[in-house]
Write a structure and sequence with these properties.
By secondary structure, the protein is of the alpha/beta class. The protein has a single domain (6-259), classed as Spore Coat Polysaccharide Biosynthesis Protein SpsA, Chain A (Alpha-Beta Complex), CATH 3.90.550.10. 32% of the residues lie in helices and 24% in strands. It is built from eleven helices and 13 strands. The strands form three sheets. Strands 5-4-1-6-11-8-12-10-9 form a nine-stranded mixed beta sheet. A hairpin with a 2-residue loop joins strand 2 and strand 3. The termini are far apart. The chain binds 1-O-phosphono-alpha-D-glucopyranose.
Amino acid sequence: MKPIRKAIFPVAGLGTRFLPATKAMPKEMLPVVDRPLIQHLVDEAREAGIEHFIFVTGRNKAVIEDYFDRQFELELTLKERNRLADLKLLSADLPEAGTASFTRQQSPLGLGHAVWCARELVGREPFALLLPDVLVQHKPGCLAQMIDAYRSADDNANVIAVEEVPMERISSYGVVGVGPPKGKMFSISEMVEKPPRDKAPSNLIITGRYILQPEIFDLLETQTGGAGGEIQITDSMITLARTQPFYGLKFEGRSFDCGSKIGFLTANVAYAMERPDLGPALREEIKKLLGGK
Ligand code: G1P
């Protein structure tokens, strides 16, 4: 069983659902409490043992690359002001030199195309894929739970995080069919991207966390447009599932779709509530708001 060392973060999306906030700033830099969305994702990957972080960016996303670099002026100022705790925090979050890579998706052709853009950086080894729109609140994190389950699976296994959603939302997602159980996971019997409600094989959706074998890149190379005319990773996974096992893991924890305003706002509240320095005061403020006064 080859270890999962690398993770892909596709961060080229335009973020039109958050305009005007995202007019001059990538949506992945929007803060959930005081950490950018993308930092939460990197935290989850790092906790799961990921050693190399691959960002597929696009135009107007250079600030993400700057964010994962040192900021000498800021560091110097903090040092001069003896703000050592803040300084420590900054360096703890920084990927070690040489462990973050950036490549560009030159045209917005879909998620499958974004993943394919990282093929040279990943090489021929299994990898993790984390979609930055989705946050999962749990310790251990969603990817750590998946890697744990993956270790007990077949050598060429692919693992996808899944969760239940109400049927009226099913057509916004990739949906899986449920086959026989496999340890904590189940075999995926079918997959379909954004099906109409009456064609969905279950109420279990693909949550935005994947462990995939490198053969997916060979399929993405020639993948044609699918749902919405975009090159869909799900369509290449359907082909790969003919020759390799695919498992679904119903992870523990609550997910937030931070691609939607309500999901993003709820994530902010949920993450702040968990913080000892913010939770109690926030609860009081929310009580006041709900009291209508
Ligand atoms: C993508 C995937 C889909 C998955 C979803 C999770 O869709 O294609 O299978 O269920 O992320 O958020 P998107 O949200 O990019 O349309």
